[in-house]
Amino acid sequence: MKKVIVATKNRGKVQDFKQLFQRKGYEVISLLEIPSSPDIDETGTTFVQNAILKAEGISDILQTMVIADDSGLSIDALGGKPGIFSARYAGDHKNDEDNLNKVLKELHGVKEEDRTARFHCALALAVPGRDTITVEGTCEGFITEEPIGDNGFGYDPIFFVREKNKTMAQLTKEEKNEISHRANALRKLEETMKNIRLGY
């Protein structure tokens, strides 16, 4: 069976990628399943740069196909923050609740119409000896004043999606896959993969 490594230890993200790649006949392996998996420094200044660094770095080391994402939340009232620092906004310990609470504190007193934000996802698919493929997806919304909902992870409980009239954390998995930034990026990747032969 063809194999693709998903360059993440986030179980939520792994499931998203499995839905696409298993349907195409790939065995999907995450970094959770690779002992002493390589750790790549994310030194890029954009989501795309960081996704490429992870995908190409791990692909070069393991000599197999690797998909990596870099995603995060950009809030207009905070000048685009937390952006590429979304996972560690409150510190290198990468705690979802601390990150979320820091955002809410910084937006204290900001009116709803000024709390616009978007989730952004960049995907990079690296194959040894081939040019790396990149796609991007976004999801528009605004930041609530308190967490709502128990599903999802990260900033989902404070990201309100107007078209669903719910936060990301209130959506079912099926609803989230209709509109999420990662789902949008994955749909673009699937279209791109239809037009190329990966040889893997």
TrEMBL record:
Catalysed reactions listed for this entry: dITP + H2O = dIMP + diphosphate + H(+); XTP + H2O = XMP + diphosphate + H(+); ITP + H2O = IMP + diphosphate + H(+)
Binding residues for substrate: 8-13, 71, 153-156, 176, 181-182
Enzyme Commission designation: 3.6.1.66
GO molecular function: ITP diphosphatase activity
Domain of life: Bacteria
Listed cofactors: Mg(2+)
InterPro entries per the UniProt record, alphabetical: dITP/XTP_pyrophosphatase, ITPase-like_fam, RdgB/HAM1
HAMAP family: Non_canon_purine_NTPase
Name of this chain's protein: dITP/XTP pyrophosphatase
Source organism (scientific name): Bacillus salitolerans
